[in-house]
Amino acid sequence: MHLEDPNVRFRLTPRETSFYDMFAASADNIVTGSKLLMELLGADPAGRAEIAERMRAAEHAGDDATHAIFHQLNSSFITPFDREDIYNLASSLDDIMDFMEEAVDLVVLYNVEELPKGVEQQIEVLARAAELTAEAMPNLRTMENLTEYWIEVNRLENQADQIHRKLLAHLFNGKYEAIEVLKLKQIVDVLEEAADAFEHVANTVETIAVKES
Fold it and tell me: 129-143 b/e with 16+ CB inside 10 Å = b?
């Protein structure tokens, strides 16, 4: 006896769609981190410890989001795109939060009185990249409207490189004590690594889009 209902359609290769939501959540958390970086600029040294605590909480939330993606990846038979690309995208998003949290932590640990001029430009670039990344993640569902995203993030990374070079030149102009140069250089280097990580995310998204086209 044949009981097949013609109105019921079965997908033989279902795709796990929760990845899209998890990537979007991870990117939204990065926006939270970038806002905390902006807060750091306007905070006096006494208020920075509290910002660092909130950044640590955001970084832990980012870790949880990344672990959730990896767990889903390991338990899914069919994925929306290549497993390697899912892993790379999740890892690069996690790297961004790690670098931003490290920068805030270093400012507090080193008792930095005043950040050098130019750091605010670094952080502004990161905040813009965070916004673009959060806007782009939901578009992974359709692979539409992504080209401008990765082009703009790559442009921002080039801008971040220029800001970083100028900051290094400023730090080595002889006005700072050697120990202060070491502290401040580590902070601006970590912020530069965050910009690089945004570019890695954008490049991974481009790779995924090309494969899916």
Answer: bbebbbebbebbeeb
Cβ–Cβ under 8 Å, residues 30 and 130: yes
* Phi, psi of 9, deg, nearest 5: -110, 130
Q: Could you give the C-alpha distances from 131 to 24, 30, 86, 127, 173, in angstroms and in order?
A: 11, 9, 20, 6, 34
State the residue for tokens 């250089």: 185
Q: pTM of the entire structure?
A: 0.90
CA atoms of 106 and 99, how far apart (whole Å): 10
Distance between CA atoms of residues 82 and 17, nearest Å: 13
pLDDT, tens only, 85-107: 999 999 999 999 999 999 999 99
